[in-house]
Specification:
mainly alpha, globular
Length: 329
Amino acid sequence: MVKTLPGLGLIAAVVAVAFQINNFQPAISPLALCVAFGFLIANFGSWPTFADEGTALASKKLMRIGVALLGAQVSVVSLQAIGIKGVITVILVVSFTIFGILGLSKLFKMTGDLGLLIGVGFGVCGATAVAAVRPQTRATQEETSYAIALISLCGTLSIFVLPFLGNLMGLSDQTFGAWAGAAVHDVGQVIATASVWSDDAVKSAIVIKLARVCLLAPIVLILSVRHRRFLKAQGESAQSSAKVPLIPFFVLGFIAVATVQNTLGISGTLHDYIVLISKVLLGAGLVALGSGVRWKAIRTIGPRPLIMGLIAWVIVAGVALAAVRITGI
């Protein structure tokens, strides 16, 4: 444990800087910054060897604990607020996003795992979703970092583009908020986009966004089953495939925290602390992830995912708006 302290100290300092920048400008995702800072240190300087033990701990255990604590953001009240019509709309939009981007990734001759990371990130909750599903895929560190960077870029563009288009179309506060909640990826970017419009739009956006977060656990479960089947199909030994649990422990933790949140109720202050701890732990894991990425490997991925991502962003925004207007949520 002592060997991990130097690395954890370095990572904690990087995470602190990322969150401080986010405090000044909430539209900038601290998780995207964490990946970027880890990458920049490793590629324009050198990630120190003394940090290896702490980096390994952050990239696995700390990140998974952070995902488990995300369960505190799951709210049955939010699902009740949008009703069955809203729940169905959210499921359809998220499903279309994931499968649509998987289809586009094939068209652009990208790897399926990169397309899956982008699709889940676009569909559910940005960098957080990417961090949660990555262990259930064969995606490389470079593909993961690329996906997070692309999602962050498109989410940032939404802050400026969606309010402009909303004004042109004369959307109401509730409609625009629901659109932002359905179309934008990272929670901070959802709030930033809706806050440009009005306080009522923010309330509507958060409800829809939290409904999307609720889908994280079932998606990870489905991908876990898929990953085990892949290992068996590739001829992995029973012992090797058994190392990949059918239900990952961090998903069980996610469900447990969500259950406590919605049955016993977690007080406002404690809830805020849990959400913050979750983000900090995810940030630590993403710093570690970024530190393992090399620019040469990123360049080999090429510009096609960027072009595909921008096209997908436009299509997903259009589908989300159509769904919101048709159902009236």
